[in-house]
Design a protein that fits this description.
- The structure is a single chain.
- This protein is of the alpha/beta class and 380 residues long.
- The chain folds into 2 domains: 7-177 and 358-373, Glycogen Phosphorylase B (Rossmann fold); 187-356, 3-Layer(aba) Sandwich (Rossmann fold).
- Helix content is 42%, strand content 16%.
- The chain has 15 helices and 14 strands.
- The strands form 2 sheets. The protein has an 8-stranded mixed beta sheet, with helices on both faces. The protein has a 6-stranded parallel beta sheet with strand order 11-10-9-12-13-14, with helices on both faces.
- Helix 6 (157-167) links the parallel strand 7 and strand 8 (172-173).
- The radius of gyration is 21 Å and the shape is globular.
- The model has no long low-confidence stretch (mean pLDDT 92).
Length: 380
Amino acid sequence: MADHPVRVAMIGQKGYPPVHGGIERHVAELAVRLAARGCVVDIFSRPHYSDADGPTVVPGLRVRRRPSIPTKHLDAISHSLLCTVEALARRYDLLHFHALGPGLLAGLARLARRPAVVTVHGLDWQREKWGALARRVLRWGESASARWPRRTIVVSEALREHYRRRHDVTVDYIPNGIDPPPPPPDPGVLAPRGVTPGYVLFVGRLVPEKGCHVLVEAHRRLPPAVRRSHPLVVAGDDRFGGVYLARLRKTDDPAIRWLGFVHGPLLEALYAHAAVVALPSTLEGLSIALLEAMARRCACVVSDIPPNREAAGDTARYVPPEDPAALSAALADLLAAAPQRRREMGERAAARALERYSWERVADATAAVYRQVLGRENAG
């Protein structure tokens, strides 16, 4: 990428390797590819997320495991502050912050005259879990992300338009990516979890804005025979779930399978053998779970919000946010349809996802931003 490697500190994500979380997946996919392009990338990791520490099997990539105050309100900012101070002391060429809260610390980088980039993955102050003070801090983070870093990256067109209208700034649009999926695993991978093909699948963190409560209610409105033949499989959890997670799981419903966080071959098998993937979120940056489902030829039912429209175009079935009756009707229609109809939806979705979204292009575009920030536009 240049005469000497660009040393980058990634700050704000929970850690590496990515077990759960869209930001964690984004950072992992990006960091591996930046390392292949000549960067030296350190990913700062929280101790409760991963045991990884030190060099990885990927040349040029290192994990630095540092402590945090592991509460809902202090986990991210305490960890990010500690890591920012360390990164400034280590004199990285560039600090790359992820999300609005950690992005506040781009101000420290500016005071230290060190280049910083912030990637905004969503408007976190809109999330229901935050109280008034936390929302105010995250709004400050949004304002800071528009003013303090050398460059600001957003993952969706909707976010780019938001920054143009609200902050009168031009930001870099670099969406999330996707890789061509591996061959579908055998359905036998699902058997130990008590799952057989033909279910409705939800993938995501169990927080209010992901809409799992809407999906649970929509699934309960299906006729009993449909619920038995197409149970709801929930692949997700939340470390700080609290009241919401307890409310979701308080009823012992035999037609719902709660699998917790899932990744690797099991997640691939879940996508491959789902009848329908339902993602009724009210807030997204650009959903990696949706892109993954599309790339894996899944028939998708999603909430009608701009980031989902941007990702799926005319390949998904849309329902109004927070409308369990409409979601239930859409599920009933797709589950009653011939499998060929769902396969055709999935084929169109895969073609769109693989044409438009690529982690390789994400890495190329991010590396170009780094070169411009560091004045190395003509570097390889």
